[in-house]
Design a protein that fits this description.
Elements (H helix, E strand, L loop, with lengths): L1 H28 L12 H4 L6 E10 L18 H16 L4 E11 L5 E5 H4 L4 E5 L5 E10 L4 E6 L21 E6 L7 E12 L14 E4 L11 E3 L5 E8 L10 E5 H14 L5 E2 L2 E4 L3 H7 L7 E6 L4 H4 L7 E5 L2 E2 L3 H9 L6 E8 L2 E8 L1 E2 H6 L16 E3 L2 E5 L2 H6 L9 E6 L4 H4 L7 E5 L2 E2 L3 H13 L4 E8 L2 E8 L8
Antiparallel strand pairs: 1-2, 1-4, 2-3, 3-6, 4-5, 5-6, 7-8, 7-10, 8-9, 9-12, 10-11, 11-12, 13-20, 14-15, 15-16, 16-17, 16-18, 18-19, 21-22, 22-23, 23-24, 24-25, 24-26, 26-27
Length: 502
Amino acid sequence: MLKKILLVATATLRHRYTATLLALLCLTTAPLSATSVPPTFANIIVPLLPAVVNISTTTTLTRGRGGDGGQSYDFQKGSPLEDFFKDFMDQMHSEAEGPRNITSLGSGFIISPDGYIVTNYHVVADADQVTVILKDGVELKATLVGRDRRTDIAVLKVTTNKKLPFVQWGKSEKLRIGDWVIAIGNPFGLGGTVTAGIVSHLARDMGEHSPAGDFIGGYIQTDAAITLGNSGGPMFDMSGKVVGVNRAFFSPNGNNVGIGFSIPSEVSKKVVDQICQYGRAKRGWLGVHVQPVTGDIAEGLGLKQLQGALVATVIKGGPADKAKLQSADVILKVGAVEVKDERSLSRIVGDIVVASEVPILVWRKGKLITLLAQVGEYEEAEETGLIPSPDDGKELTKGVEIHGMTLQPLSPEICQRFDIENGTQGVLVVDVLQKSSASEKGVRPGDIIVEISQEEVKAPQDVMTQLKKAEKENRKSALLLLNRDGASRYISIRLQPDSGKS
């Protein structure tokens, strides 16, 4: 009896052992899915490397901006120290008068055999010269096709006799948290640098660190290492398609801590296509400032669900104003697309073809009504000053530059910051280049240009248009009417090339 029991037990153990071996064998021979851990990334990466490039930029800085470099010293009038520091600063300025070249490096990727290249806006911003370095070391001069500050996307073009290797766009909207992704860059001139990781989060809001506002709708977050030199490089999925444009990493101490951000291809491809077609992004614009629909607001308005975007203000002269939208309206649908929240509205309208008419479903005073709006162009509204540029109220050293003057529209934010009376018309001068005609004639930062040649100006583009018109008419000067601290004065500036940008 004991012998029989031992035979049965041995057979059972042998069966379990065999089953375990078969299971392990099946695991080792089973094909990997797209999201499984691959034994190597080499088969995916090797064909992609030639299409990833290094981008080197050179920016020439000329002395003259900013007077004493932003430093001021208060000494008693006539003090020997006053003369000493004046002589010292003058000597420093004269020694630094010559131009300086500043170089920086980034990454990019080729999207067509004829040389169109995608990178970040901030990689090529203000660059006077851009050089693309291929994987084999060949250097090509690049021209800027167009760029978009809002989404941090830029497109370059190089010319060569041979067809270039290129990569294809993928679909970022199909990514899931936990999917493998590969980041390839060409930082610091080291050659191709590859890192791999997983998608840590989708639609990540970077808050104040993002220049894009609601236009991106959130970044792809990954633990694949993204360094400064990787900016503008591609993020690939496991099929070798571009699902993002690497933009930045977050770190409390400057070291990589596994938090990198990429612009989804769902957004970046649209911007790239528009830049290639028009030379710039062309986004739809409605002309409203919106806010979230909270529980209290929904109850007060009689809404049963927390959805839509509450209209706080309607921009005068914008598409919404012309369509008779009002404050306190809740936008529920644009066309056939539901507006889930206030952040989604910009993306929905931005995807609509400019100048097309769309029905807008709104909740007003307890009733559903439909209004018809003709979608405007966001970038055009920005240029004409209907809406502030990305730098308004932030970086006041940037703006439209012409004849030595840096100009910005009088947005509500600018008026509030500089204590300018609401309703003041004109264009704000935020900087004046030394030795320019404007500087010599007494134009100062803080002046408001009201008229040029007796024509009213309300936006920087108006100033540029009037000055260029005067140049075409071969006029030697232009008459500016300035508002300085509430008092008006006329100044005539020469219309000839100076040391400023134009």
